Structure formats: C-alpha cells, structure tokens
User: Fold this.
Amino acid sequence: MNITKDLSIDQVTVGAVLATDLTDSNGALILPESTILSQAVLDKLKTRGEKNVCIVIEENSSNEQRDALRQQVEEQILSRFRKSDDQPLMQELKRIILSHQLKGVL
Assistant:
C-alpha cells in the first residue's frame, strides 16, 4: 500500500512519482498521474509557478529514503525559521509545521 503526500515543489526530489494528475487552474492536464519527476520536469514546474504536488510515498520504502525525505523537509522548514530562535511563538509554529509536514514521511 502506498501513501500520498502533498509537498512543496521545493521538497520534491528527482525520481518522485505523481500520485494524482497535475492540472492548471482551468483543469487542463499538465502531467498525468504516475509521472516520474526528473530534474528538468521539476525545474519546468517551478518556472510555471507550481507550488505543490501530490507524490507517492511507498509504504515499504527504505528507511534511508524516508530519512532523506525527512531531512529535506526539516532543512527547508528550519531555514524558513532561522531568524526566530528568540521568539517562542515562532518556535511553536515551527514545531507545529514540522509535525504536520512529517506525518506522511514517518
């Protein structure tokens, strides 16, 4: 059984597989479900201004793959909160976001 996860386009790695069709705001197909994402495709999606995609995370994926994805998600979120170490509310927000983003990765 596979798990799906909505990720920021910046969190998606080369080789990720789309869990659903990717469509534009008018419903036109950009990429079909099951597309394996290459670096060129990810770059093109960023250029188009795509923010998120739904990818497949295999339930039986290796611990190394999950750890790598977890680390990538953590690094991105931590970088966004890098200037808020002395602000308790921002630290709590960071903790909540990390928890939410990592639910599908663990």
Remarks:
- The chain has three helices and five strands.
- The chain has two domains: 1-60, 61-106.
- The chain has a mean pLDDT of 84.
- The two ends are 15 Å apart (CA to CA).
